[in-house]
Structure formats: C-alpha cells, structure tokens
Amino acid sequence: MRFDIITLFPEMFTGSLSESIIKRAKEKGLIDIKLHQLRDFSNDKHYNVDDTPYGGGKGMVIKVDVVDNAINNVKTQNPNVKKQRTVLLSPRGRTYNQDLAKSMTKYDNIILVCGHYEGFDERISDLVDEEISIGDYVLTGGEIPAMVIVDSVTRLLPGVLAEDSAESESFMEKDSDDNYLLEYPQYTRPVEHKNKKVPDILLSGNHAEIAKWRKEQMKRKRS
Ligand SMILES: C[S@@+](CC[C@H](N)C(=O)[O-])C[C@H]1O[C@@H](n2cnc3c(N)ncnc32)[C@H](O)[C@@H]1O
User: Fold this and answer.
1) Ligand 1 geometric centre to CA of 141 (Å)
2) Which of 35, 43, 60, 188 would be a feasible disulfide site paired with 50, CB 3.0-4.6 Å?
3) 132 CA distance to ligand 1 middle (Å)
C-alpha cells in the first residue's frame, strides 16, 4: 500500500509516521509513505496556495488549480497502481470509523489531501473520490486526520500485526443490532492492586470458560 500525502506541513509527519508499528511496516516494505509539499504546485512565483474568498469573509481559501496540479502530479508518479483512492480531509466529510478503515485496505494507493486555513475552494470536491472527517470537531489542518487514516489502515494490512491480533480488537466485529463489539478487559500482574482484584475466571486456568467470559465482555456498552 502506498500513501501519498499532499500537505503544507510535511514536517508534521516525521515523528508520528516513523515509530513503532508504522516504522516496522515501512521497513518490511508493506507500506510506503510519500509526502508532497502543496506549495511546490503553485502557479505563481510567490508559491501562493490560497487566496481571499469571493463574496468576502474571513480567512484564506486553498486554490483549486494548485490542488488540481498536485493531485495530477502525484497520479502520474504512480502510473502502475490498479486501485487508487483520492481523499480530501474535511470536517463535513463522511465520518471515519473502523468499517471505512477496513474498506480502504482494498486500494494499493491512497492519496490524502490535507487542508489548512479557512478551507478549500468548493470545486476541489470534484477532484477527489470522497471526503472524510475524523469526527465532529474542527482541527487546524488535515495533517492529524491523515495520520489517523494511515495508522488505522496500516494496522489492518496483512503482515503488519502478528497473525490474528487485530481480530480481537475493538470495532472489528458487530452484534446483531449493528453495534461494534469492544475488546474484552485485559489484566496483568499484580493480582491485586488497591483492593481491585483480577477476575477469578482469568486465574482459573479453564480456557473454555475464559473464552466464553471474554466473548460476553465484548458486548459491553462503551463507557
Ligand atoms: C480549520 S479547518 C477548516 C474548517 C472549515 N472552515 C469549516 O468550518 O468546516 C482546515 C482544514 O483542516 C482539516 N480538518 C479540520 N477538521 C477536520 C476533521 N474533523 N476531519 C478531517 N479534516 C479536518 C480539513 O482539511 C480542513 O480543510
């Protein structure tokens, strides 16, 4: 899977996408992450990427021609990909969840376009396949949402986590009412801490009963 991230702030990604599971996935060649500076696709000598809104109002709006250049350039760098998805990070997009993360694993290239400032020229919507929001709040830019997508999709790719370890995680299955199941409670030593004991069932050694208990616990409501 190749991720192409179009952003005004590529430096924001260096720490978060260079550690732990993402780092190992890159080293194993399971993912590749390419960062593209949006300013490089500006059409003027001052490298402007935004302008004031028509009709007046506060803030600056990211220009459609600059984003069009950027997306086209990234696509020509990847002529051999079979399944490509271009995503605009936007608070008004479809709300991201684990089902959407799973559905994104079928692409071999995901292009993520990060906004900043007041937002995008409306015509940028026509240049992408979909708009995704990571929740009903407004962030300063699309960089954190892009990191969320890269991380959550990468964990689901074959070979990234130890075999089956994603299966028992929260949000991987649903009950008959279409509610996500959550991960069962986990404990480790000590057996007792400040009067709180590990449930007896987990100390019983009865693996069938433990599995049954865990399955029940996965139906808990969210706290
Ligand atoms: C300050 S926000 C613009 C908010 C816009 N003026 C509005 O009211 O909807 C700048 C950029 O951050 C990104 N962004 C902010 N919140 C987001 C969210 N919840 N999900 C995805 N992207 C978000 C988008 O790329 C957006 O264009």
Assistant:
1) 6
2) 60
3) 10
CATH of the domain at 177: 1.10.1270.20
Q: Are residues 129 and 175 in the same domain?
A: no
Measured from the Cα of 135, ligand 1's closest atom is 19
Neighbours of 171 (CB within 10 A): 15
Q: From the CA of 20, how far away is ligand 1's center (Å)?
A: 27
**Domain co-membership, 22 together with 81:** yes
Question: If we measure between CA atoms, which residue out of 97, 159, 175 comes closest to residue 132?
Answer: 97
Residue nearest to atom 19 of ligand 1 (CA): 91
Per-residue pLDDT of the chain (223 residues; tens, 9 = 90+): 999 999 999 999 999 899 999 999 999 999 999 999 999 999 899 999 999 999 999 999 999 999 999 999 999 998 889 999 999 999 999 999 999 999 999 999 999 999 998 889 999 999 999 999 999 999 999 999 999 999 999 999 999 998 777 777 899 999 888 989 999 999 999 999 999 999 999 999 999 999 999 999 998 777 7
Answer yes or no: are the C-beta atoms of 134 and 145 closer than 8 Å: yes
What per-residue confidence (pLDDT) applies to 118?
87
Cα of 112 to ligand 1 centre, how many Å? Answer: 13
Query: Among candidates 102, 92, 73, which has minimal Cα distance to 6?
Result: 73
Amino acid 157 reads L
Tokens of residue 75, six digits: 């696509």
* Boundaries of domain holding 65: 2-155
50's enclosing H/E stretch is strand 50-51
Nearest atom of ligand 1 to the alpha carbon of 118? 6
